[in-house]
Amino acid sequence: MNYLKPILSSQQILNLLPFSYPFLLLDQVVELVPGKRAVGLKNVTYNEPYHQGHFPEKPIMPGVLIVDACGQLTAVVCRTAGLMDGKGNFIGSPNPKVQKAPIEYLAAINRFKFVRTVVPGDQLVLESNIGKKLEGLLNATVRATVQGSLVAEGSLIVTIGTVESVGT
Amino acid sequence: MNSRMEAVITRRREVIGRLKQVLIRSLDLELEPDEIAEDAQLFGLGLGLDSVDALQLVVGIEDEYNCCIPSDNISIYYSVNTLADFLLAQRENKGDDV
C-alpha cells in the first residue's frame, strides 16, 4: 500500500504524545479517525540501539517493542479524539504540556501473538481500533503487518484519565 | 410446576452456565463453573477481580453474545446473577437467543 501524504508527521506525533527519544516508536500516522482507529508506520532500521544486542548475529525487533508501538498508536487515537476535526486539522493544542492529558499507561496485553520476525528494512504498518471503554480503561485491538503480511496482533487495555493503579 | 416456569428456569440455568464459561475463559480463572457462586461479588471481596478484569470480562461477554453492555450501569456487574438478569432482559427485548 502506498501512503503518499501522512496525516500526522513525526514532529506532530512528538507534540501530541508524551514520548520522546529514545522511545518514540511511531514515525507517521497515515489514516486517522479521531477516537476510533488509526493506521501508522514505523520504519525499522539497524541503527536502533537494541539491535546491537537483540541479537548480535541476527537483528530482530523485540516483540515487546512492537506491542509498545501499537500502544503508542492507540494513544494517538485517544488523544486526537477531542482535538481534531474530520478533515485532519487540529482544533485544539496538540502539545501534551498544554493539553495536560494524563499519560496512557498499558494495563493489559491480551492474546498477543507474533507471527513473523521483524528485521531492519521492514516498514511496520500498525493498526489500532478502539473498542470498549469502562471505568477509566479502554480496550483496543491492534495489529502489525509488513508488506501486507501479519507480523503481530492482539489486544491492549490502556488507562485513560488519571489512574495510577488499576487494582480495586 | 408448569412447563412455562420450567422453560424459564432451564433458560436461566443455560445463561448462567454459559456466563460462567465466559468468565473463566476471559479471565483465565483456574476455577470450575460450580466453584463460582452465582451471588458472590465479582469485584472486591468475592472473586477479587479488578478493573482490568472487568473490562476483559465485558469484552468477552460482548463477543460471546454479540451485544452491547452499557458502561454507565455498574450494578449489572455485581455478580453472575445480576449479569444473567441483564442478559435475559436484553433477550426479552430483542428476541435473540441468549
What's the quaternary structure here?
heterodimer
What is the ordering of alpha helices and beta strands of chain B?
A: HHH
Strand content of chain A: 25-35%
Task: Outline the biggest β-sheet of chain B.
Answer: none
Radius of gyration of chain A: 16 Å
CATH fold description of chain B: Non-ribosomal Peptide Synthetase Peptidyl Carrier Protein, Chain A
Distance between the termini of chain A: 44 Å
Q: What's the tally of helices of chain B? A: 3
Counted up, domains of chain A total 1
Helix segment tally of chain A: 3
Q: Into which percent range does the helicity of residues of chain B fall?
A: 55-70%
Tell the overall outline of chain A: globular
Biggest sheet of chain A: strands side by side, in what order?
1-2-4-5-6-3
Largest sheet of chain A: 6 strands, antiparallel
Instruction: Kindly give the count of domains of chain B.
Output: 1
CATH level 3 topology of chain A: Thiol Ester Dehydrase, Chain A
**What distance separates the N and C termini of chain B?**
23 Å
**How would the global form of chain B be characterised?**
globular
Question: Approximately how much beta-strand content do the residues of chain B carry?
Answer: under 5%
Q: What's the total count of β strands of chain A? A: 6
Poorly predicted regions of chain A: none
